[in-house]
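Predict the 3D structure for this chain.
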Amino acid sequence: MRKLLLCLFITIGSISVSPLQGHHIVNAQKPIPPYAKWGTLAMKKTHERYPHADIIDYLHIGRRSGPRTSTERFKLWLKDNKKEFGVFINIEFNTQTEKVVKITFKETKK
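Done. Predicted structure below.
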């Protein structure tokens, strides 16, 4: 084991890294989508409802807009020690104030 570590240190130490000259690295950030805060809430409420399950996938399905309320729709895929399953989460909120009106959950096998 010590020989392996010694070889690793020697190899890493012998690699020289030269800075890129004349190149500029740009850190482009994607804009935050308008549903992001609702997705965070969906994951939080799902974790509260299924505390022993891991959220392994997330999908924003879309928004249904109405005259007074709108609904953000998500599908989360969960896994616990017994099974994997999907959960559809609908977050209905007041379009003007963004106050949550209702959150519903529906489990699915697909």
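The helical segments are 2-14, 36-49.
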